[in-house]
Amino acid sequence: MIPEDCGILETSTLRIPRPQIFFRIEILTKLRWPSWLITAHESLAFSRDPRLANFLAGVTKGIDYFYSHIDEAIDYIAAHLGYTTEDARAWLKTVEHVKDASKVDPSVVETTVVVLQKAGVVNGPAPVDLLVTKDALHK
Residue ranges per domain, the chain? Predict the structure, then answer.
């Protein structure tokens, strides 16, 4: 359960075909909260293992492709992910993807830590420089 003082309400949509059942839960947040992040152990840092850099470059390339082929992306979402075309277009107005999957904004980490501290998941300080390698931070 998410504590009320975190400023988060959950949003999820589940559609089940025939009989038509539709569940919708809203996630509203005052915080910048990513829907996903990629994490890796420090032993896979860019300088030690090129597989991580190659993977993150591929994710970035996929994001670039998505945004340069929006109509194709919306058609795919509608055809394969259980959403309508209208839902997919509306969703695109509310989301933002990173420009470079190999970088993370320090404020995202800080905000995440604050929420997890309020939820009682993280106890004590958790400074960004101890959680994220320097070469992965947006400057």
Answer: 50-100
Dihedral sign from CA coordinates of 96, 99, 105, 109: positive
Please report the pLDDT score of residue 90 as a whole number. 92
Q: CA 121, CA 116: separation in Å to the nearest integer? A: 5
Distance CA 113, CA 94 (A): 23
Q: Are 44 and 51 in contact (CB under 8 A)?
A: yes
**Separation of alpha carbons 136 and 39, rounded Å:** 10
Greater pLDDT, 137 or 4: 137
Quick one: which of 28, 112, 19 has its CA closest to 132?
112
Cis preceding linkage at 19, omega within 30: yes
